[in-house]
Amino acid sequence: MTQRRFFPASLMAGLAASAAMSLPGAAMAGSYWHPANNESGVTTHPDHFRSSKTRAQVLAEAETAVRQGGASRFNASVYPADAPQAAGGRSRQEVIGELLDETPAQREARQRAFGG
User: Fold this and answer.
1) Are 99 and 109 in contact (CB under 8 A)?
2) What is the block-wise mean pLDDT of the chain (116 residues), using blocks of 10 residues?
3) Less Cβ around it within 10 Å: N or C end of the chain?
4) Secondary structure of the chain as H, E, C letters
5) C-alpha distances out from residue 61 to 10, 31, 52, 74, Å
């Protein structure tokens, strides 16, 4: 039976590996999000959240942003731009009248254009 020799390099590698495995868990300990086995992959713990600003400071910053035009509404940049409004144009009765007055060739062309 042979005796194993102690190598400082193997000790260092073991310590480095154990530190690398424990660091993500330690980093998550004080975090707002924690890994979980669910659809989103995380759970939130609001009581773990630490803010460097007071509620009054956040409200003051929000009011300043709204006054300066930087934030007109909550998450305005997330939503698509409002669709431009169509010009007044014709009334419903005028459109119905045009459909009733169209020729068979115009009707066929319209139906082909709209896949009818």
Assistant:
1) no
2) 66 70 54 77 77 89 80 61 76 92 93 83
3) N
4) CCCCCCCHHHHHHHHHHHHHHHHHHHHHHCCCEEECCCCCCEEECHHHCCCCCCHHHHHHHHHHHHHCCCCCCCCCCCCCCCCCCCCCCCCHHHHHHHHHHCCHHHHHHHHHHCCC
5) 54, 25, 14, 13
